[in-house]
Amino acid sequence: MALAAGRAMLMRSGVRLGTQAAARGGNGARRFMNHRVVVEPNTVPGVAVIKFKNPPVNSLTLEFLTEFVICLEKLENDKTFRGVVLTSDCPGIFSAGLDLREMCGKNPAHYAEYWRAVQEMWLKVYLSNLVLVAAINGTSPAGGCLIALSCDYRVLADNPRYRMGLNETLLGLVVPFWFKDTLVNTIGHRASERALQLGLLFPPAEALQLGMVDQVVPEDQVQSTALSVMTQWLAIPDHVRQLTKNMIRKATADHLIKHQEADIQNFINFISRDSIQKSLQVYLENLKQKKH
Ligand SMILES: CCCCCCCCCCC/C=C/C(=O)SCCNC(=O)CCNC(=O)[C@H](O)C(C)(C)COP(=O)(O)OP(=O)(O)OC[C@H]1O[C@@H](n2cnc3c(N)ncnc32)[C@H](O)[C@@H]1OP(=O)(O)O
């Protein structure tokens, strides 16, 4: 169902599914390639590595979200895969979060389509039957952080330049309740109150201390650590682990599912405000200015 919706979304946004290619890597493994998401089976049996490849900053465009959900769905339906490592192909950036241009200067129908895609991506990641380990090899603000927080385990590169957190208030935005719930479930209520209101982005040592990530390791060991953690998680039989995960996460996901349409309407109303549009334009302009 989500796959069909995703395909329709891809068609609407002009992405041709026919451009997906399959090739054999050096180790003979099958390697699926989309435009923006690359899926590589790994040396660890049953484990795939998804690499975000939406340069320059892996922002979560509509096309990216659609490809990502389709990739996850394919892996879930392929019983040879039990776990996935999520990482980035863009140096120094895991994901810059939601694509600001998708939320700027567009019409309500576009905002509705985009927000539904964000919701569907989160539900797919948060409730995945697969073991998901985030190998965070770069900065991950807002929506990028949300993806990592929705995984089962997080390994972050020990690079003081990398920052992680939900910084929405710094953009003049209110964090959606399900972003908030995901953070609260990870670092607790008090730490979330402070982090969310101040829009804090944490360097690795602080992210570890807060419990926002589970491990901080040297940059060149992020993926190998994620794979060895995966081995530990895969030692548990899938059905008991999946039932346990579902038991823990279901209430949080159901909260959004129950209010999904209202959440879309709230998003449209909020993002369409002149003041919010101005804030986003200024923020984008500032990103440009900092280069000069
Ligand atoms: C009543 C309540 C109702 C509530 C309803 C909900 C309300 C709305 C909720 C919305 C939730 C939003 C979640 C988000 O994820 S918002 C996005 C947050 N992301 C950021 O703040 C990151 C911004 N980017 C950066 O800080 C830097 O770009 C970064 C550190 C990631 C990389 O820096 P670097 O120097 O390497 O690269 P540049 O800054 O030069 O960027 C390169 C180009 O990429 C563009 N860019 C960057 N980030 C984004 C983005 N998120 N979306 C779109 N485009 C982005 C940047 O502008 C540069 O473009 P140009 O080359 O054209 O200048």
TrEMBL record:
GO biological process, one term: fatty acid beta-oxidation
Main location: mitochondrion
Pfam families in the cross-refs: ECH_1
Catalytic activity: (3Z)-decenoyl-CoA = (2E)-decenoyl-CoA; (3Z)-dodecenoyl-CoA = (2E)-dodecenoyl-CoA; (3Z)-hexenoyl-CoA = (2E)-hexenoyl-CoA; (3Z)-octenoyl-CoA = (2E)-octenoyl-CoA
A single cellular component GO annotation: mitochondrial matrix
Pathway: Lipid metabolism; fatty acid beta-oxidation
Task performed by this protein: Key enzyme of fatty acid beta-oxidation. Able to isomerize both 3-cis (3Z) and 3-trans (3E) double bonds into the 2-trans (2E) form in a range of enoyl-CoA species, with a preference for (3Z)-enoyl-CoAs over (3E)-enoyl-CoAs. The catalytic efficiency of this enzyme is not affected by the fatty acyl chain length.
Protein name: Enoyl-CoA delta isomerase 1, mitochondrial
Source organism of the structure: Heterocephalus glaber
